[in-house]
Every structure is written in C-alpha cells, then in structure tokens.
Amino acid sequence: MLHDAADSILVLVDLQARLMPAIRHGEQVVRECVRLATIARRLGVPVIGTEQSPGSLGANLAEVTALCDRTFAKDSFDACADGLCEILPATRRRVIVAGCEAHVCVLQTALGLLGHGREVTLLVDATGSRKAIDHDTAVARLAAAGALPATVEMVAFEWLRSARHEHFRDALRHIKSPAIGHAAPGDLPRPD
C-alpha cells in the first residue's frame, strides 16, 4: 500500500517549545515534521497540529504552527477524546501521525484514530520521546495494533510517485535540506 496525497492527512502532535528541549533528538524530530509538513502543504495535504494543555505547556514551535491549517488544543492524551476525529476531513482515510511524546500522546492519539476506523501511519523518524526505550516500545506497540511504520522520505516519495510530478524538484529540495526545521515562518512555502 502506497501513501496517496489525495487520501492523506498529516497530524503533528504536541511539538511545543517547552517540551522539545527534553526530547531525545528533539531537533531532528522537529526538522522531519517540518520537512514533511512543508511538502504536504505544497501537495494539498491538510496539516493539523495538536497542543497538550497549551495554557500550562505553551504553544507549538512557530515553524510548526506556520504550517498547520489548524491547531487543536487538547487536555486528553488521546486527541480523539477531545474531538480530533470530528475536525478531520471524512473523505481522507489515511492519517499520518508524528510528534511527541511517542509513548504518550502520539501512542494514544494513534490508537484513538485506529479505534475510529482511520488508517494510521506512524512516522518513526519524526516522532520522539525523552527515552529511546519509550520511543521504540511505542513504535512496536502501534505496529502491532495496525499502524503502518514509515519514514518522512518514504511518505514524501510515495505522495510524489514520480520524478515527473510537478512538485518533485521543490519537494526534493526540502527532503535534502538539513536546515528546513529552523526556517522562519515567512520563508515557508504555501500551496499555490
């Protein structure tokens, strides 16, 4: 099963400025989330962000917020319990999930999406936790529950399907760029 941009939604879970310094390889997680969200925007894939108790933990990073069509505040670890499923386009079945923490909010949100009949892909390289064992165990548990593990590049190239895609060169530039995770919000491309 290849990922189809026309059937995908990207959900970025809790990439909050106060949380990210504690995340193992946090800069890489943010970079990969921003990289795929940038490509998603170019290809018309909706991008939804979540923030865990933003009154206490603060907002998502500016570069993440700039790429989201909507940011959804929640208090439950499973965003579906606070209404995420109601705001996702019903015509798109595949929800691609990334963010933090893998073993808490990402895990519970992905399980919630599966429970609501959605097809879920977990971006292993764009998902983080404070400890490696928590990340790795969450990945294994979600795969056993039916979520499809993938990487940012896998999904991006599957969305494109061919080097002849009209946005291939632009997407390739973002895939190869090591610094995109720290671009200024005004520098991020928007869909035409």
From TrEMBL:
Gene3D superfamilies the UniProt entry points to: Isochorismatase-like
Domain of life of the native organism: Bacteria
Protein name, entry field: Isochorismatase
UniProt lineage: Bacteria, Pseudomonadati, Pseudomonadota, Betaproteobacteria, Burkholderiales
InterPro entries hit by this protein: Isochorismatase-like_dom, Isochorismatase-like_sf, Isochorismatase_domain
Isochorismatase-like domain segment(s): 8-153
Pfam families on file: Isochorismatase
Organism: Cupriavidus malaysiensis
